[in-house]
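In the previous chapter we treated chains in isolation. Here, by contrast, the input contains two separate entities that must be folded as one system, with a combined length of 512 residues.
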Amino acid sequence: MQDFAEAFTVAFGLVGALDADLVEIVVLSLRVSLAAMVVSCVIGLPLGGWLAISRFRGRGVMLVVVNALMGLPPVVVGLMVYLNFSRAGPFGWLGLLYTPTAMIVAQTILITPIIAALSRQVLEDLNTEYAEQLRSLNVTGFRVVRTLVWDARFPLLTVALAGFGRAVAEVGAVIIVGGNIDHLTRVMTTAIALETSKGDLPMALALGIVLLLIALGVNALVMSLRATAARYAYA
Amino acid sequence: MKKVISAMLASLGLAWAFHSQAPAADRAILVQSTTSTANSGLYDHILPIFTEATGIAVNVVAVGTGQAIKNAQNCDADVLLVHAKPAEEKFVADGYGVKRFDLMYNDFIVVGPKDDPADISGMSDVGSALKKIAESGSVFASRGDDSGTYKAELGLWKSAAVNPAAASGAWYRETGSGMGATLNAAVGMGAYTLADRATWISFGNKGDFEIMVEGDNQLFNQYGVILVNGDVCPNVKSAEGKKFVDWLRSKDGQTAIAEFTVGGQQLFFPNAGDGAT
């Protein structure tokens, strides 16, 4: 149990000293996972909206598939992206393997199903409420999705945060496509894995505490923005 | 107007997220490496010296030897630095590598819990020690991956005429993970394990574990370095990669390797002069 006490000491020491290497790793973690979150929302929200309002043959199957993809193992995603971005793979000519961009791509694939599936649920619930009114106003197609997404923007923030949480916490995908290269592709989770394998458990735990603090900070920031915006909107 | 501004901000943000920040990227080479050299801190010591001398940055991906070779075969490397001579020679023979050079060596050791259930502490014959572990059914943690250490371990069991696979899941436990993770598992289970000395010395979670067996000639651990073949992999930065290989084998590189110590102990012993294969 001494490890825990030591870990907290190390963690506060790291944060207090604002260690340059740590800042670099934290910034890269945020950069990669926030970008993945934004791209996933751009893809996932319209997809979720479309699944929410449309009725077609095979929709049930598609819902099951999208929901199941929420459980995509990060290692499998990492492997798929590796095989595609490897020099021997179809997109090898892009030279993206072992770059932050490859990590963003991997995390985007990982969390887009989460954004799509959860937003589908939110938007479908809202649609049952709005459907009649929208029909009477003769609003159809993509404009319905736009209206629903806008009106559900606050619950959808939570959906986006769920995606961010998954992205920033995963290690399996980014360690394969990023390679955990010092000063280039090392993020919080791969640094934690590295310290664990070195047997420096207090340091690994300390980095874990820092990661938690960051997730806490991001969530607090988004929630306070949301509260401010909500006050504004309903004032 | 507001929309235009937010769209601009959003695209700026994405551009920042995706921009490839690359210090001297054109002159950066990629090394696929075994983990022991990276985890022990060897690269942190020698790479800055190389970069200062040549202006070439070196990016290191540290994985098990098997995976490193696989990645290099996919052309995702300029230089390969691993420790499994037969696999390295095959890599060159198959045309993926230009030439293999001996670079440095250290040795493997058997570590185990202080109470030493198989009573092997201080033995110098690794074959008899492994036999005693098997006969007493003491727990042994194996890498169980495709790493250089695992290949060496399999060779040792073979020469001890023990088939540990028969006890897989019983006293013989294959963790299927890296050296550090396997050491963590061994310490957690009170199991014996085979480790390279560099990883062991720089390992932080030793618990009450000690070195049990060392000094057998069979425990010799040779590291090799190979430039990936630019004819097979056109993307390979041959000139820069060759500079790195040459530097590692030069007097400067060999001295830098020898000077690297952890807790006053030298972890790698340069022997590039011993010729190439």
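Residues 2-234 of chain A form a domain with the MetI-like fold fold (CATH 1.10.3720.10). The CA atoms of residues 81 and 154 of chain A lie 32 Å apart. Compare these points with the single-chain example from earlier in the chapter.
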